[in-house]
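This protein record is not my work; I was only asked to verify it. The record follows directly below this note.
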Amino acid sequence: MEYISFYNSPLGKITLAGTEKGISGLWFERQKYYAATLAGDYGEGEIPVFKTAKRWLDIYFGGKNPDFTPAIDLRTTEFRKTVYEVLLSIPYGKTLSYGETAKIIALKRGTGGMSARAVGSALAHNPISIIIPCHRVIASDGRLTGYAGGTDRKLRLLKLENPSFKIK
């Protein structure tokens, strides 16, 4: 069974979804694709992984890099899982371009290349934003492009992690 809980962040109310295995969703209210992966059968309640995820969020929104990742229960395609694994490897306070991310994924998958647009599509559908840090991927020219939670939040997250971050 899947459960939901809520977290009040400095950037707005967040809905958490999870199972006994781990976090399966984390969305800002009214963001694009809000609760898209939430199962039809769910209930509101507190499960152990929510306590861990909320502690992670407290540390993160306190301006520090959490030194752990809550258990994750991703239910998506293998391609998107690969993309999200790469996102989890982007260091706190750092960014990669969509193209750089695509090259890393192509190497991991042993393919000759990868479309930056395919990466962008996977990022847009990231069901566990912030913890799986899709906000750390930006355009190759330094512009902020796309973020299901809104580019204003993307900028605030990047500045939280790196106060000297500037849009080019």
Summary: The CA atoms of residues 18 and 24 lie 5 Å apart. The first strand starts at residue 2 and ends at 9. Strands lie at 2-9, 12-18, 23-28, 42-44, 96-97, 137-138. Residues 78-161 form a domain with the Arc Repressor Mutant, subunit A fold (CATH 1.10.10.10).
